[in-house]
Specification:
Pfam families: DUF2264. The chain is an alpha+beta fold. The chain is built from 18 helices and twelve strands. It is about 45% helix and about 5% strand.
């Protein structure tokens, strides 16, 4: 049974979840501003890019190094196509978040930065044109985003603001590129960036995985400057969410979500990389225990998605990759998981116009939480960031792919820590994940489905550039069974 004794804290009132008229007016102004700055669709300016990606991931099922580099270069090219304001904003097309389009454009930059920074690890030829371009881009972007007098300034870090999340990717990118960029900044430039980052020490966050964003920034600050302002209380709170077998509850009343892989273990992995002397035993052992059973959820075509943030689906294998890096070798089964999921999703056109689509396959409003905007799903890049960072040191591309569990046999296993049962049937290649407890027993049966957005709400969302979508987390609607066939998430047929 899941650990019941997590200390209770009251959820704060979040202004962006309770918008007033002024919020819609501000969002409308942002929509006009950001729409003017957008480049035309990448699919229109360079339609062959999508075609080349589709062709490469359809012709065979092997996830070669060449395919990986094609995928990475696709997103790098897309970043430069949509970037503006001196690389501090990236304006993608898509449905907006409830934070507005300025926040969405900052996400577009921030969630690409780690990919760019990790590329500097991967590309050993420092004279390569892309290497030089990325180095100059990040160098400018870091300074412009933290300069209050620049048009691309990301603003002050304030309580519950979305930029708190993005500051973590900013800090990680700064750390990843420190030998190429940070060391070349003047003392005043370094101080400007540190001054902006250190605002993180005063902000309030929701009491869940957001603690990891704060910690990652603080770890980077200490590594780069020696200033130790790490809030150990936040780290202890993260550990308080730990229920065993590698799983964390996302807050005192939170769900057990598939983003444990890329939301919890990814953040902990980077804490361990930045400071290997910080609680390494727990961080690495919990990741190992998580990976031991998490792999049973993956089929050759699909994954038993449960929780929210479904459009971030490419990131599902993240913890499997980070654990390989921690252990210093490639697991052939984990490599096949990443390969099959990536191929399957791309073949279903889950990447288009330089971005991951805002759904499972095609764009689907029903699957997009109100906090997610046009660039939010780029956290899907996390396993590829890890491979840029360390694939060579674990001989990832030389390792042989090994069969998935579902390709070898039937199975029926459980994860008692979260009351989850996983049933795999080899003959049908289907995996069913069943939660054997009902966290929300009083919800009416009729609510246990994905609800579409009424037309008038869609119109308001388009006009104001601000999400009017409902939260559609099926776990919170009382759904307890999830299939790798993904029938729960298929589009409505009207």
């Amino acid at each position: 049974m899941p650990k019941p004794n997590i200390r209770f804290t009251e959820r704060p009132h979040l202004a962006h979840e309770h918008p007033m008229l002024n919020d819609y007016l501000r969002a409308f102004k942002e929509r006009l501003q950001r729409s003017y700055k957008r480049s035309k669709h990448l699919g229109k300016s360079d339609p062959l890019l999508d075609q080349a990606l589709q062709q490469a991931f359809t012709q065979n099922e092997t996830f070669s190094q060449e395919k990986f580099e094609l995928l990475v270069n696709y997103f790098i090219h897309s970043f430069f196509h949509y970037a503006n304001d001196d690389f501090t904003r990236v304006d993608y097309y898509g449905y907006p978040s409830e934070q507005g389009m300025v926040s969405d454009s900052i996400e577009g930059a921030a969630r690409n930065y780690p990919l760019l920074a990790a590329y500097l690890h991967y590309q050993t030829n420092t004279r390569h044109p892309i290497f030089i371009q990325i180095k100059e881009t990040l160098s400018q972007g870091f300074l412009n985003a933290t300069n209050p007098t620049h048009d691309g300034y990301w603003g002050k870090l304030t309580d519950f603001k979305q930029t708190i999340c993005e500051s973590a990717d900013f800090a990680l990118s700064l750390w990843l590129s420190k030998h190429h960029i940070w060391v070349n900044y003047s003392p005043s430039q370094q101080q400007q960036i540190l001054t902006w980052l250190r605002q993180i020490n005063q902000v309030q966050t929701v009491d869940n995985n957001w603690h990891l964003f704060i910690l990652l920034v603080q770890f980077v600050i200490k590594d780069l400057s020696g200033i130790d302002e790490i809030c150990l209380e936040r780290y202890q709170r993260i550990k308080e969410f730990y229920v065993g077998e590698g799983w964390f509850r996302d807050g005192e009343k939170g769900n057990f979500d598939y983003y444990n892989s890329w939301g919890f273990h990814y953040g902990l992995f980077w804490l361990d990389q930045i400071n290997p002397n910080f609680d390494r035993t727990f961080i690495q052992q919990s990741a190992i225990e998580f990976s031991e059973k998490f792999h049973y959820l993956f089929a050759t075509q699909g994954f038993s998605f449960f929780g929210r943030s479904i459009p971030y689906r490419f990131a599902a294998p993240t913890a499997l990759i980070s654990t390989m890096i921690q252990q210093g070798h490639t697991d052939g089964r984990g490599k096949r998981i990443l390969s099959t999921l990536t191929h399957f999703l791309i073949q279903q056109q889950a990447i288009k116009k330089g971005n991951v689509t805002q759904g499972l396959f095609q764009a689907d409003r029903r699957l997009l939480d109100p906090y997610s905007g046009a660039a939010s799903g780029l956290w899907s890049l996390r396993p590829f960031i890890l491979l840029l960072y360390a694939s060579q040191q674990i001989d990832f591309w030389q390792a042989k792919e090994l069969p998935l569990a579902i390709e070898q046999q039937d199975y029926d296993i459980s994860i008692p820590a979260i009351n989850l049962r996983i049933i795999g049937t080899k003959a049908t290649q289907e995996i069913i994940a069943i939660f054997q407890h009902q966290q929300y027993p009083d919800l009416p049966f009729a609510q246990a489905s994905l609800h579409d957005q009424p037309f008038y709400q869609r119109w308001i969302e388009w006009l104001c550039g601000r999400s009017t979508r409902a939260k559609n987390n099926l776990l919170r609607k009382g759904v307890t069974a999830y299939s790798s066939k993904l029938s729960l998430y298929l589009p409505n047929k009207k």
